Amino acid sequence: MNTLRNIFFALFVLIVTLAGCKKDSETTGLGTINSGIQLKNGYLFFKDTATFNQHLDWIRQNEINPELIYEFNRKFGFISFSEVYYEGMRINEPDNFDEYRAKNPDCFKRIILDDNSVFWEMPMVSLLSHLVNKGGVFQIGETIYRLTEEFNFSTKNVEKLDIIMNTTLALNDSDIVYTSTNLSSTKGMYSYRTVYFPSWSDRRIVARLYVNNFDGMNYYEGRTTSQQQHWSGAWVQAKIHTIIQANNQGYYQEGASYPRITIPSNYDEVENAADFIRTILLTTHDVDFGYSSCQIHHKGIRYGEVAEIEKNEMFPKN
């Protein structure tokens, strides 16, 4: 009898445990929605580092399908940095865009290209742009983070939230820790190349290379954008039939005496799109550009015509 009672007790514990697991994590068509992720004061709260890393990995798996990530965020009532940026990029009228940009200044960076035209860039790591709010804020456990292109800020004092949003004040507050995102090689957007469609001087693609870091992890990205020149002279994003971005199998090293590490090849083709981003390399190593190579191919197709940039070196030597 005692043995049977023990078996029933064990089964009861197992059922309760399984039920608890189901409550903690519910699987949907959008991936795993974990109760460890919540919306707090307009930003995402992750209960611990494991929950954050799990979600970041899910974002990387779905990076080339951002609408799936946006749908996931909407279940929390959350609007990400990425969504704010791309909403602005859909505004064609310059005056309306300037008004929108003024309300969301952290989400846009003004870049002057070689032909003196203006390109408005998203100054945030692609993967992280899907989980930070328009101010670059999120929380893991007790720590609140704010990410910018120049600095990563963090504090455990929730009363410092307003101060952490002001870079000048945050840099001088003893309760706020900050680290520079500077890499020894470069940071942010370090390569822009532009090519026009043969029959349209008002249509082009812009290829960019981006790198920045958070918490010791360096994020290297390839970005491809299709643009059309507005009657005002401003360049705005414009969908084309096909965008292709691919990279060969590359490699990187920390220096001459370090081992060579392989970068996997990728090929991506998206239809009816204006922009494409893929994270090509995640590494905690400080890459030595002189001993590393990975070439990216950017291609746009519009009514059968092709505009392409070949052999865009991710680790330029000059």
SSE diagram, text form:
Blueprint: H1 2-24, E1 25-28, E2 31-34, E3 37-40, E4 43-46, H2 49-61, H3 66-74, H4 81-89, H5 94-103, E5 109-112, E6 118-121, H6 126-129, E7 137-140, E8 143-147, E9 151-155, H7 161-164, H8 167-170, E10 177-180, E11 188-197, E12 200-214, E13 217-229, E14 235-237, E15 240-247, E16 250-252, E17 261-263, E18 266-273, E19 275-283, E20 295-302, E21 305-313
Parallel strand pairs: 4-7
Antiparallel strand pairs: 1-2, 3-4, 5-6, 7-8, 8-9, 9-10, 11-12, 12-13, 13-14, 13-19, 15-18, 15-20, 16-17, 20-21
Structural class: alpha+beta
Unreliable stretches: 1-31
Number of helices: 8
The H-and-E topology, N to C, reads as HEEEEHHHHEEHEEEHHEEEEEEEEEEEE
Number of strands: 21
Distance between the termini: 80 Å
Inertia-based shape: globular
Question: What's the pLDDT, averaged over the residues?
Answer: 88
Largest pleated sheet:
6 strands, mixed
Q: Which oligomeric form is depicted?
A: single chain
Helix content: 10-25%
**Radius of gyration over alpha carbons?**
22 Å
